[in-house]
Amino acid sequence: MSERDLTDLRRRGLAYVAAQQQGGLKAVETALKENALSTCRWHFSHPINEHADTQAALDAFWRPLFGAFPDLTRRDDIFVTGHFDDRDWLACTGHFVGTFHAPWLNIPPTDQLTFIRFAELNAYDGDRIERSYMLLDLIGLARQAGIDLIAKSRGAEIIAPGPAAQDGLRLTDSDPGETEKSLTLVNAMIEGLMSYDRTSLKSMHQTDFWTPDMLWYGPSGIGATRGLGGFERYHQQPFLNFVPDRVGGDHVTRFADGPYVASAGWPSIRATTSGEPWIDMPVPSGLPVTMRVVDFWRRSGNRFAENWVFVDIPDLFLQCGIDIFEALTPTQ
């Protein structure tokens, strides 16, 4: 991709995001029609899931969302662009912010300020979006409404902060050498994750890839942790007990922009359940499952210092015969 192409992609991406930051539903409708193909395929978290064109996505996601949060705005903490598999990509993460005024997805309103954590990755065909992937922390949204769809997190449940380096909005060209360094590091780190011997976490050699005080911001249900020891205790070991044979690498995009890397898999992980519970949810053994996952990493020096993680936990449990939204009473 040339510098001119990347600059144009950022310009278009900023206009698309700005409409969601301050324009309201009408502005979002216009922005989608101007920035996305009418045939764009939209992928959301369960229970919103996939929609085959932009009009369907407007009807299924955006209109109900603004109906529930009339004053909705968007706050982006990371905004990165890059190239993967012959496509230009824009990736963002942050929070939708608004007053929860009316029911959404059968979650009751609170009339209180509410944060919905999101990750969005868009693939472009020319100057328009042809595919979009968005994961939302809907379990965290329900928690803010006083509803526990699943058990409390082992880690801390927090509003995930933006990057400590305060440089997550990549609005100018990044040093190509720094970009390549980040991509090389993430590929090596993931190769290490796939070397698990099902006996010791040390077999993955993750100390080679993370700063001692790394911060890992997982979704509600998993939570946030600090340091590799906290990550292993509160997420990695319980997760590997649940799906010890998990394999990954089936990503739809992975690209770097300076010290940042964005990656998405739909699904990203394939595995078989062991019969061990996960997030205190009893699940039968021997079930084949997949996981929709999005990651953003920030590199500091030669190691990663922060990781923003999104997992479509509701979709995973649905594959196990558990619909965590089923208990919610339909509301008008």
3D architecture notes:
- This protein is 29% helix and 33% strand.
- The chain has seven helices and twelve strands.
- The protein has helices spanning 3-22, 24-35, 54-68, 138-144, 176-193, 227-242, 313-319; strands at residues 36-44, 50-51, 73-84, 87-99, 113-125, 128-136, 210-217, 224-226, 253-257, 260-272, 288-300, 303-311.
- A six-stranded mixed beta sheet has the order 2-1-6-5-4-3. The chain has a six-stranded mixed beta sheet with strand order 8-7-12-11-10-9.
- The longest helix is centred in the N-terminal third of the chain and has 20 residues, at 3-22.
- The mean pLDDT is 95.
How are the secondary structure elements laid out?
Layout: H1 3-22, H2 24-35, E1 36-44, E2 50-51, H3 54-68, E3 73-84, E4 87-99, E5 113-125, E6 128-136, H4 138-144, H5 176-193, E7 210-217, E8 224-226, H6 227-242, E9 253-257, E10 260-272, E11 288-300, E12 303-311, H7 313-319
Parallel strand pairs: 1-6, 7-12
Antiparallel strand pairs: 1-2, 3-4, 4-5, 5-6, 7-8, 9-10, 10-11, 11-12
